[in-house]
Write a structure and sequence with these properties.
The complex is a heterodimer of chains A (69) and B (410). Chain A is of the alpha+beta class. Helix content of chain A is 22%, strand content 20%. Chain A has one domain: Alpha-Beta Plaits. In chain A, a hairpin with a 6-residue loop joins strand 2 and strand 3. Chain B has 410 residues and is α+β, with helices and mostly antiparallel strands. Classes of the chains: A alpha+beta (69), B alpha+beta (410). The structure holds protoporphyrin IX containing FE and iron/sulfur cluster.
């Protein structure tokens, strides 16, 4: 799985940090998203998918591995 | 398309609630089961679309084809006062990106999760103090709204902004006028002016006598004129005031009516104190979902033709997203009419809105609720309602739903 974040779109809601704190954080200066793990560990995949769908400003996109389905 | 199914007179919104004061208006819930969007009528005879399904609300609020700019033709106003409110110096809640993002980003650091988490002890201390004072009443009764639910978030937001709490009676009067859907345009404009003038003067003062509040910081940064700072301050003051206050009092009432769920909250609080906050997080999210205090419809206007849930919305047509109806949508929340403090996925609720305007203060609101609700049940274990349930006055006429007062005894 590969995760992308678009800092220009992010509105700093913090939803991703609540949902998948191992993968997302917020910048100190302005609360904008930072990606902690571009290739998250398997145990975080469900949370990352949830973070993608609940990000209010569509700043998170997830690419699933073809092989893993 | 949707309209043909209901040839009768269109529904006028906001619609009345039914017998249960915790449930959304039955007409919204019925519309949710219909196909497409619902054509509804507003107070001034104009029409717009009502959106009631969870997925449709998400897609409207995150689509940049829908504008939050109330100066655009077709923007739906819920009352004459609302129209007056948005013409005098709108704050960024009524702007689109990139202007909205530029202003919002001046505040996102103040409300980010880590920053807000560091306020936990302070908020707890305030809550304990308020409850201690309240519990000292010789007749062991109090109005929980006036003595606890309202002062707590009010003190917190005043501290954050650097606004003297001694002025809270003034703010409460103004913000409640601004939120009343039955206030006249003249009343709303006057209330809004009073706050703006006060905050403009405060911003000017903070340039020469700074403190560590948000207003002072914005003034020192020198990017905004004093009137813009005042407009932002007003948004934070109003948004940070009544929302959490009403969530707190309504939640307490809900728990008083449902002892089993109250026990679940106590258990969640015990686990939180032992270091595992997940159950308390879920309980708070579920109360936000179930109660959805921002209930009167989140307004947008389409700037291009767009399909939503099988209905074509034309450029220049307004939409109202009924967050309370979306939060009971069975497709998103099975058995959504039931309060279940252990509900998986409760956080998908729309109580804070969705899209780029999703509540800026949500981490703070969550923190305040996580502190306030366990504190009430802990400090007043025998708390009960001190008036018949039927006599309670719910805030039907306010943009933020809740209770005018909550008489309790212990
Ligand atoms: C339980 C408490 C709260 C609820 C239910 C709530 C709900 C909401 C909702 C639904 C919106 C979106 C409005 C729209 O899209 O038009 C919103 C926006 C906003 N809220 Fe809250 N809110 C709460 C607490 C707070 C607090 C404590 C603050 C500030 C300290 C705050 C500040 C704001 C601001 C500034 C916006 C505008 C954001 C923007 O336009 O980008 N809210 N809130
Ligand atoms: S959920 Fe989306 S908008 Fe919110 S902080 Fe994360 S990336 Fe930004």
């Amino acid at each position: 799985m590969q995760v992308h974040v678009d800092q220009d779109r992010c509105c700093g809601s913090g939803m991703c940090v609540l949902t998948a704190g191992a993968v997302f954080d917020q910048r100190d200066a302005d609360g904008i998203v930072v990606l902690l793990a571009e290739h998250p560990a398997k145990q975080d995949w469900d949370d990352v998918r949830e973070a993608e769908s609940s990000c209010p400003s569509q700043a998170i996109t997830v690419e699933e591995d073809q092989a893993a389905g | 398309m949707a309209t043909a199914a209901h040839p009768s007179t269109p529904l006028t919104v906001p619609a009345a609630r039914g017998t249960c004061p915790f449930d959304p208006p039955p007409a919204y819930e019925q519309a949710r089961g219909d196909q497409g969007l619902t054509r509804v009528r507003l107070w001034d005879g104009s029409s717009c679309w009502m959106v009631t399904r969870h997925a449709d609300i998400r897609s409207v609020l995150r689509d940049r084809v829908f504008s939050a700019d109330s100066s655009r033709a077709g923007f739906p106003f819920l009352s004459p006062g609302r129209r007056a409110l948005t013409t005098d110096r709108p704050s960024f809640i009524r702007m689109d990106d990139p202007e909205h993002a530029r202003l919002r980003r001046m505040l996102t650091a103040d409300f980010m999760i880590r920053k807000v988490a560091s306020m936990h002890e302070g908020v707890r201390h305030l809550a304990d103090e308020l409850l201690e004072r309240m519990a000292a009443a010789p007749d062991r009764t109090a109005d929980l709204v006036a003595e606890f639910a309202l002062p707590l978030p009010s003190m917190v937001i005043c501290l954050l902004l650097g606004v003297p709490y001694s002025e809270h009676a003034f703010f409460q009067r103004c913000s409640s006028t601004m939120l009343r859907t039955d206030a006249s345009p003249a009343e709303v404009t006057a209330a809004q002016r009073e706050i703006l003038d006060f905050l403009t003067a405060l911003a000017r003062e903070r340039r020469s006598a700074p403190d560590d509040g948000i207003i002072s910081r914005l003034a020192a940064a020198g990017e905004l004129p004093d009137e813009e700072i005042a407009s932002m301050g007003r948004l934070l003051l109003v948004a940070g005031h009544e929302t959490t206050a009403n969530m707190t009092s309504l939640s307490v009432l809900t728990l008083l009516r449902d002892p089993e769920q109250a026990d679940r909250l106590r258990e969640a609080a015990r686990r939180d104190a032992a270091g595992d906050g997940d159950a308390l997080d879920t309980a708070v999210e579920e109360l936000l979902r179930y109660l959805t205090v921002v209930h009167s419809g989140t307004a947008r206007v389409a700037v291009e033709d767009v399909m939503v849930g099988g209905t074509l919305v034309r450029a220049g047509e307004g939409v109202l997203c009924m967050l309370n109806a979306g939060n009971r949508d069975e497709d998103a929340f099975p058995d959504g009419g039931r309060l279940d403090l252990e509900r998986p996925g409760a956080r998908r609720h729309l109580a804070f809105g969705f899209g780029i305007h999703q509540c800026l203060g949500q981490p703070l609101a969550r923190l305040e609720l996580r502190v306030a609700l366990p504190a009430v049940l802990d400090r007043l274990p025998d708390i009960r309602l001190a008036a018949p349930f039927e006599s309670l006055r719910f805030r039907h006429e306010m943009g933020v739903y809740g209770l005018h007062e909550l008489p309790v005894a212990w």
